[in-house]
């Protein structure tokens, strides 16, 4: 038999936390934010902070596609067909999945979009979809960073595979080079973290996504962040850009 949860069953701490969250969120302005930046520019560090501060939902298109496929939604089924054939999922499908996700209660105050739009056509489709709802993009945060700094950041990363502990040859080295501090096991460099892979990812980013920054700049929506700074300073820049 299915059990239904009544409000009495919810621990009072959880209820209070949720009520306080709603009270805090009710006074927050709606915001629709896009994060743009190359791999390793710090988007992943800043997005949870922005999400909590402004009560937004975080829409990472890769995760949303996987979730739609797993849930076998009509759009998810279409997406799976494309993926099975080794094709790219069409822009309209991705915009449709974003549209669906935005109806969730957690997206009431707006969203942070990460990993989309990657092309100007996608940006235009997103604008059209939002316009139908009487909404628009409020701010585009551009995590601007020099390729050379990124290369140093990413190619220096070392991972302990079984625990996920991460190190950096320059910024956070292990006590013994190449060895995990806790277990003494060897550290590895992820396949994606080599300079060859990074170069091709950066090239794709510059060719496809820089025009997106220009597209939004024309509407005065872009805030350029100094993404090479320490995370706390970048957070301060983000808060200033969104205030």
UniProtKB/TrEMBL annotation:
Adenylate kinase active site lid domain boundaries: 157-192
Stretch forming the signal peptide: none
A Pfam entry, by short name: ADK_lid
UniProt KW keywords: Kinase, Nucleotide-binding, Transferase
GO biological process: purine nucleotide metabolic process
Keyword Kinase: yes
Taxonomic superkingdom: Eukaryota
Protein name, per record: adenylate kinase
Described function: Catalyzes the reversible transfer of the terminal phosphate group between ATP and AMP. Plays an important role in cellular energy homeostasis and in adenine nucleotide metabolism.
Keyword Transferase appears in the UniProt entry: yes
GO annotation, cellular component aspect: cytoplasm; mitochondrion
EC number: 2.7.4.3
GO molecular function per UniProt: AMP kinase activity; ATP binding
Catalytic activity: AMP + ATP = 2 ADP
Start and end residues of each stretch annotated as Disordered: 165-186
């Amino acid at each position: 038999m299915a059990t239904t949860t009544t409000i009495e069953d919810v621990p009072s701490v959880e209820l209070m936390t949720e009520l306080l969250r709603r009270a805090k969120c009710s006074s927050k302005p709606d915001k629709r934010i896009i994060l743009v930046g190359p791999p390793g520019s710090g988007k992943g560090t800043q997005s949870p902070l922005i999400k909590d501060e402004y009560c937004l939902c975080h829409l990472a298109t890769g995760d949303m596609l996987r979730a739609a496929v797993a849930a076998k939604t009509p759009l998810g089924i279409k997406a799976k067909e494309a993926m099975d054939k080794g094709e790219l999922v069409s822009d309209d499908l991705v915009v449709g999945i974003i549209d669906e996700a935005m109806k969730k209660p957690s997206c009431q105050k707006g969203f942070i979009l990460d990993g989309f739009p990657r092309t100007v056509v996608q940006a235009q489709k997103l604008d059209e979809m939002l316009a139908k709802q009487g909404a628009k993009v409020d701010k585009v945060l551009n995590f601007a960073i020099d390729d050379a700094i990124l290369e140093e950041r990413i190619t220096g990363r070392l991972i302990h595979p079984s625990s996920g502990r991460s190190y950096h040859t320059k910024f956070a080295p292990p006590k013994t080079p190449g060895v995990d501090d806790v277990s003494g096991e060897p550290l590895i460099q992820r396949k994606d973290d080599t300079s060859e892979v990074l170069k091709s990812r950066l090239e794709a980013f510059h060719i496809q996504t820089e025009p997106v920054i220009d597209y939004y700049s024309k509407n005065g929506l872009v805030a350029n962040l100094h993404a090479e700074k320490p995370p706390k300073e970048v957070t301060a820049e983000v808060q200033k850009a969104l205030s």
